[in-house]
Amino acid sequence: MSMNFNNPINQAAESAIQKMFEGRIKAMDEKTVLFEGEVIRQSEMGLIARLAKQPVEIQMHKQGEIKTMSDGTQYQVTPQGWVKI
User: Fold this and answer.
1) Which secondary-structure segment (H or E) carries 58?
2) Nearest CA-CA partner of 3 in 57, 69, 40
3) Residue 71, domain extent
4) What does pTM read for this prediction?
5) Number of C-beta neighbours around residue 32 at 10 A
6) How many domains in the chain?
7) Helix, strand or coil for residue 6?
8) Could you please report the per-residue DSSP string of 12-50?
9) Strand order in the sheet with 66-68
């Protein structure tokens, strides 16, 4: 899954994301978080959106999909999760 923002996130939102998804984050930049897991809590996403002061979009990805981070690094979904390519 990925969490996406229109604008760069602030430090408060980044800290909350790191705490909530500890051990499940595979990559993170100023607008995108790639993470593994199947449970998303509406209350957690609401808190992140309020801290970031912007909407947060959650995307589910199927095997083989590729996501490009802001620095150009690409990650692909595999049966084992996100893998840097």
Assistant:
1) strand 57-59
2) 57
3) 2-84
4) 0.90
5) 19
6) 1
7) coil
8) HHHHHHHHHTTTTEEEE-SSEEEE--S---HHHHHHHHH
9) 66-68, 74-78, 81-84
